[in-house]
Amino acid sequence: MKINPNLPGKIFTSRTGLARTLATLTAAIALMSVGAYFLSLWLHDRLDLSNELETALITATTAFAMCALAAAIYKRRLADVCNDTCQIHERCSAQHISIRENYHRTVTDLSLYNAVLSSHLRDAIEQTEASVLGVVGRLVNINRQSSFQVSQIGTSSEKSSELIDITHEQVHKNQQVIQALNSFSASQFDQLNDNLDRIQSLSDEMEQMRPLVAVIADIADRTNLLALNAAIEAARAGEAGRGFAVVADEVRSLSNQSNIAAREIADRITRVSKHAQAETENAKKSIANNEDSQKFTSLADNLSHIEGRFKSASVHLEEIIKGIDEANGVIVEEVSVVLGEIQFQDVLRQRLEHVNDGLDYQSKFAQGTLLWLEGKGESPDKQLSEHLAEAKEKYVMQAQVTAHDGVIGTDAAAAGGSFKKIELF
Amino acid sequence: MAKTIMVVDDSATMRLSLKSALELSGFKVECAGDGVLALNQLKSGVKPDLIITDINMPNMGGLEFIKHLRTVAGFRFTPVLALTTESQQEKRDEAKKHGATGWLVKPVAGPDLVKIIKQVLPGA
């Protein structure tokens, strides 16, 4: 609602009213002058008065008429002004009541409005705090899970390393056994070679006996021939050679047996020699193939291969664990940074608490002003501007001062903008 | 052996975030909601190697806490870092006068905080 600017108690409320009054007065003066002229003519014809008396009478009459006219005009204007004043007063009273009602409603609404805003801000602070606490809790949980996994992997790694060490040790032992077996095999091989050499030597020696057997057979044949000649000679000698004939028969019998024994020895030498030859050939073939040694070497190679694969797996596993450890380190670093940044909530909370204090004071100020307007109390001892200046003194953050000065328009923001974030005394 | 750090702050967010960040770096952490509670803990046997305190707290603020702390036996030379939103030089000077070791304005990133702690707490 707009307030009427025309205040009551003024006679001339505008230039138009003044001009109208002056015009009325001028017309009345002109009329008076004309009346005075005709009055002077009438007095001059009817009464025989002196000139001075006539002039004085006309002047007095004119003055009286003018005063009466002015009084009439003033009275009329006074009535108009009174009327106007009453109307304005009525309008002002209505306006005042309306303003007061409006202000009362505004103050009530403002308090309620501020209370709602404060409640929203407090809720927002509480919700932010609860959410941030939840975020921190989850971050900590993530980190715990990550650390647990790394620990589990570390344990697995240790177990794997143990297994690899055991396998490595076992392979080493197996290799020692294989080495011993190889040595044994080599020793057996050498021994077998020696045996074979000896058999070969025996076989050779037996072969060398073959000519002797032939000599024996030849001697037997010759002895048989001699025995036959002796028997012939004994027959020629007659009775005297009978005993010699018996000896000749015996000698021939012995030579036959010697011949048979010589052939048998030759046969046996042949058989033994062939058998020894065959065994020697087989043994030599086996030695040439070196099968056992090859088997041992193959086994040793396999074991070395297994050990190599275990070592490779171990190195790969260690690389994976190292990678996971590094990734976990990055996670820990990031979580630590985020936990630091979460401190914004406390900064925000403190700023919003200042805003809440301001809203509370604004409500109290409006209530005080209303009581004062209703005549129920003193006017507030501080204006809002004074309270705003005091609020600035209570700021704790440079950001608050900067924001304040940015609105108020002082140069303090530029003056106090720099400070050390971290300072060790 | 892990060093013990006491965190004194009225904000639950600050207490939890600092405790978590410091525990990640291998510290043992004790927490208190204001200066009075912190002094009670110290008198009941908690023996931190370093204290991180807020400045604006109910019941007993950080400056008063530092002042009282220096009169408690065994804590005359314990390093105290003020971690606050306060940026006014007068408050810093007052903290220094009462025996604070350093002044940190929130928010401070976890790694930066750990770096400062290691600087004032050799062997941490």
Q: Span from first to last CA of chain B?
A: 9 Å
Helix content of chain A: over 70%
Assembly state: heterodimer
Number of helices of chain B: 5
Average the pLDDT over all residues of chain B and give the rounded result.
91
Global structural class of chain B: alpha/beta
- Strand/helix succession of chain A: HHHHHHHHE
What can be said about the biggest beta sheet of chain B? 5 strands, parallel
Which pair of chains forms the biggest interface, and how many residues does each contribute?
A-B, 34 and 40 residues
Global mean pLDDT of chain A: 81
| Structural class by secondary-structure content of chain A | mainly alpha
Radius of gyration of chain A: 75 Å
The overall strand count of chain B is 5
Summarize the helix and strand pattern of chain B as letters. Answer: EHEHEHEHEH
Architecture overview:
The complex is a heterodimer of chains A (425) and B (124). With 425 residues, chain A is an all-alpha fold. Chain A has eight helices and one strand; from the N terminus they run H-H-H-H-H-H-H-H-E. Chain A has helices spanning 15-46, 51-236, 242-289, 291-341, 344-373, 384-394, 398-408, 412-415, and one strand at 422-424. The longest helix of chain A has 186 residues, at 51-236. Helix content of chain B is 41%, strand content 19%. Chain B has five helices and five strands. Chain B has helices at 12-24, 35-43, 62-69, 89-98, 110-120, and strands spanning 4-8, 28-32, 50-53, 80-84, 102-105. A five-stranded parallel sheet of chain B has the order 2-1-3-4-5, sandwiched between helices. Chain B is globular, with a radius of gyration of 13 Å. The mean pLDDT of chain B is 91.
